[in-house]
Structure formats: structure tokens, C-alpha cells
Design brief:
alpha+beta, globular, 4-stranded antiparallel beta sheet, two-stranded parallel ribbon, single chain, disordered N terminus
């Protein structure tokens, strides 16, 4: 959580993952699409649980087809997997399916305890992200899953509020930020700050009115 007291605002986010839209044109080339894509002989791609974990660290820029795929799977808790499979079949020659780690125990809400999974109905490990926002971001910015994965202009930044490495890099002048059209985290912070200021102004007006009465 970013907290700045004494007449400043605070947000309730524990991470600062950001959906960044740039003015970079076009889709990845076939060579770029295949970067870090490893197919088995039967076209399988293994998605280890450890590769589907996106917390507040380590800091990362996800700007490849493969890395954004892993993030979309994790951030959607697997809900986007059917769409992603079809996209991979379209863009990755020979691809057939993803193989995920399986969960052997899951939480049962009724029993309020962990129970073993059924071998005939496997439950897959889709990893996690601190902020499960990918679907909301795609909807907000009107971006399809296919375009998000295959176009150069969309980037995910993985960061934490206790580090704010992205801000340090952007503010250092080492990176040309003029290509950025949208930065979801920065925009959300601006919205929160504007809301906080409006609430403070309203509070002051009420206090002033009460004093006059």
C-alpha cells in the first residue's frame, strides 16, 4: 500500500502492476513470437506453476508474446486459457496444448477444509498475480486478448509499491516515456488523488459551514 499521511492521499493497492499502452506499431514478427517458446514433439507447451507467479517482485517488463501469455493465464486464474489456446494455434506452428501442474488438494468451502482432488477431474495450477486485473484492463481499454498478446504496443509492468522501480526508471530520464499513451497504474493513482482531494475539499466546506452556524 502506498501511504502518505499528513495532508496527502493513500491508495489501497498492495502492488503496482501496470497495463501500459505505447505507440509502437505492428505485431511481433514470427521470430519474435517464438522467443522463449519451447514446443515438445507433440506440440505441448509446459506451463510450470513457478512461471505463472507474478507478485510484487521481482520487477519485470512483460513485452513478449510468451511472457504476456503467462501473465494473462495467471491474472485471469485460467479463465482466458481457452481463448489463448486458439490464439497460439493460430500464431505458433505445431502448437497443440498447454500442460499445467495439477492441484492435489483444494479448499472446500462447505467443509471449511482442504480435500483431495479427483483424478478424473483434475484441477490445474494457474499461478497467481497480486492484482487479478487483466480482464478489467482489456475491457477498459477495449483491447482483445489476441491483440494484447501479439501486438508490440501492449506491455505489462510487474512492480510493488514498496519498490516503485518503474517510477524510478521513468523519472531518471534513462527511458523515453514519450511513447506511452496509457499507464493504468499512474492513471488510477491520479483518479484516487483527485477523489481524495475532492473529499477533503467537501469535508472542509462542511466544517466551515458548521462553524458559521
Amino acid at each position: 500500500m502506498r501511504q502518505v499521511r499528513l495532508n496527502t492521499f493513500e491508495t489501497n493497492s498492495s502492488s503496482s502492476h501496470s497495463f501500459v499502452i505505447t505507440d509502437f506499431e505492428g505485431r511481433y514478427s514470427q521470430e519474435e513470437l517464438m522467443n522463449h517458446v519451447y514446443l515438445s514433439k507433440d506440440g505441448k507447451v509446459i506451463m510450470w506453476e513457478s512461471k505463472l507467479e507474478f507478485g510484487r517482485s521481482p520487477f519485470d517488463f512483460l513485452n513478449t508474446f510468451e511472457s504476456k501469455t503467462r501473465y494473462a493465464i495467471a491474472s485471469s486464474n485460467g479463465r482466458l486459457v481457452p481463448q489463448i489456446v486458439e490464439i497460439w494455434k493460430k500464431y505458433v506452428p505445431g502448437f497443440s496444448y498447454f500442460e499445467f501442474d495439477e492441484k492435489y488438494r483444494v479448499w472446500d468451502e462447505e467443509k471449511q477444509e482442504y480435500v483431495e482432488t479427483d483424478d478424473d477431474n483434475p484441477v490445474y495450477e494457474y499461478g497467481y498475480t497480486d492484482d487479478s486485473m487483466i480482464e478489467a484492463w482489456l475491457k477498459k481499454y477495449n483491447v482483445s486478448v489476441e491483440d494484447f498478446l501479439t501486438m508490440k504496443r501492449y506491455i505489462i509492468v510487474v512492480d510493488g509499491d514498496e519498490y516503485l522501480i518503474k517510477d524510478k526508471i521513468f523519472n531518471s530520464g534513462l527511458m523515453d516515456t514519450s511513447h506511452i499513451i496509457h499507464d493504468s497504474y499512474a492513471e488510477q493513482e491520479a483518479e484516487w488523488e483527485a477523489k481524495w482531494k475532492a473529499e477533503q475539499e467537501e469535508k472542509c466546506e462542511k466544517e466551515h459551514t458548521n462553524e458559521n452556524h
